[in-house]
Amino acid sequence: MAPGMAHPLQSAAIETRKAWINSAGVALAILAFINLFNYLDRYLVSALVESLKHSELALSDTQAGSLMSGFLIVFALIAPIFGSLGDRMSRPRLIAFGVACWSIATALSGLAWNFTSLFLARASVGVGEAAYVTIGPSLLSDYFPRGQRGRVMAIFFCAIPVGSALGYVVGGLMDVHFGWRMAFFVAGLPGLVLAVLCLGLRDPPRGSQDEAEPGAGGEHSAAGDAKAGDQPLFTSYLQLLRNKPYVLTIVGYVAYTFALGGLAFWMPAFLERMRGIPREQATVSFGTIVVITGFIGTFAGGWLGDYCAKYSQRAYLWISAIATLIAAPFAWVALTAPSQTVYLICMVVAQLMMFLSTGPINASIVNLVLPTQRASANALGVFTIHLLGDVPSPIIIGMLSDTSSLAQAVKIVPIAILISAVVWAVGALAQPKGKSR
Fold first, then answer.
1. What is the pLDDT of residue 259?
2. Which of 53, 57, 129, 194 has the highest CB neighbour number within 10 Å of its CB?
3. Domain for residue 313, yes or no?
4. Is residue 5 part of a domain?
5. DSSP string of 371-397?
6. pTM
7. Could you give the number of structural domains in the chain?
8. Of the listed ranges 38-47, 217-226, 244-253, the one predicted with least confidence
9. Is 151 inside a domain boundary?
10. Residues with Cβ < 8 Å from 281, sequence gap 6 or more?
11. What pLDDT does 46 receive?
């Protein structure tokens, strides 16, 4: 064997390793696990609200709500920058950078000594998450063809309920047994391993899975828009704002995110205060509802969306509209009925219907725009839904709670759910008819 040449078995092992890391399935698994830890970290604070109120930090409800709002403001403001970079630079490297940033910032939250230091640490998490959340769906859309994206997005976004539930469970259990500081350390450090794994992913050519398929609004092809990613930042965003179905999809997503964010942040405290459920049981029980309904609803919605999209490209939006329309009255009853049994049944149905729209609505976002605009489209969506959705909802509910009661404050949630249903129905009607390929 010539010097410098690898042994055949060694070469085979290297090629096998490359094939493994380059496979679409492995990429989906890595990105889904990153998303899981992303949401575990995001909703960790919800499980710690009561402890933070009674700790040396002595937070008010308004301050507690502002921790989520502060994080989401930074997240939303930074997202358009990473969206533009994601349409031009290496997406795996940008994602790895983001994951490492929010992992370190989460661990540093455990060292906070007052409200300001905790607020700054939580806000810094938004810088890292802005890179990942905006670019991840764009990368996945170039691993999988259009007809599979509902299911792919369902798997990817299934991390929302699972990660959120783990945030409640891990946060609640760590808080009870080891204190709230340890919860941040445990949640933050595993992300560093996932950041390293992400560096091994390939970055497929943009639009590689869209050949001969309709682009935004069914009017463009991927090949014909190869230069779209070279446009100036604001030009790309202005083009997206002229895409009516995309805009309506995002507007509906704002109301949906307002409702989901407010519900997710305040439900453990609501159950403890209004229903008299012990703290550990409140976080674990609501986390269980979220993970079960989220897992079932997200997967069912993704598969249902792909099946119905064979017959109409409007299917994703219609499924989202109908599901949230059903969810609204059940959410109202769950938050107002005194019976624990009625609460449980109605909350399960409401959460199931809410999560049913997760896969379809995110498939709509990537399918309604050009392949070279997807990171920017996700970034603009992230900016809008968070800045107008779950940035204000936790703090608005907290302020309403401080002036009246938490029982009255949460009634804003089902109203927002109903608004999302109406807007998505209008968006479906605005989308061109025809079969999705």
1. 93
2. 129
3. yes
4. no
5. GGGHHHHHHHHHHHHIIIIITHHHHHH
6. 0.69
7. 1
8. 217-226
9. yes
10. none
11. 75
